[in-house]
Amino acid sequence: MSTAAIIPAAGLGLRLGGAEPKAFREVGGESLLVHAVRGLRAATAADLVCLVIAVPAGTEDIVAKLLDPYVGSATLQVVAGGTERTDSVRFALELVPEDGIDCILVHDAARSFVPVEVIERVVGAVRAGASAVVPVVPVTDTIKRIDSAGRVVDTPDRSALVAVQTPQGFEPGLLRRAHALEGAGVTDDAMLCERLGVTVQTVEGSDEAFKVTRPRDLILAESILAERRSL
Hints:
Layout: E1 2-8, E2 26-27, E3 30-31, H1 32-42, E4 48-55, H2 60-67, E5 75-80, H3 85-93, E6 101-106, H4 116-127, E7 132-138, E8 145-146, E9 152-154, E10 162-164, E11 168-170, H5 172-178, H6 189-195, E12 201-204, H7 215-230
Parallel strand pairs: 1-4, 1-6, 4-5, 7-12
Antiparallel strand pairs: 2-3, 6-11, 7-10, 7-11, 8-9
Helix pairs in contact: 5-6
């Protein structure tokens, strides 16, 4: 069996700044989107056969030409994304074949440097029987829950808290059922699965799978890339 990957990359990335969408910002001379695709392809144990990328409307042909040298034997489809992340994933999901795929990954283009072993852990857990899998890292900060007036309500035990990363992996039928739900207030695809009452399994993530969100994150991304290229 094989894996398909969806990358929602239609967001503008306003917090990152710049004149172009976040996924097109460059690190080490190549876009975050190229780095993300290259990383997925490097996870050979995932058996990636299909990539569907959701991008800003009007950039489909440009992105298809940009990514073509990096997809190898996998099929590549590029679709216009939606207003919300869930819309982009849903549009892309419609293009994923229903036959021959046993795992669908949903991956943020902004998490461009996720290590291969994290990707393969996610896929391995799905193939071992988990319907929904997310990579996570421990929360190291003290977290406070506040009310609408900014007053602290309580302090959760951080030993039971984790930060969730991507790629998230899903049994294909479950992901399709999840995206048939109303997606208001949803921040990741696992949350949709939770609304179906499905147990979401966690696997070990990585500090290198951080999300490029603000300008200073580009500096960290450059550092990680330089270290990898020196090996």
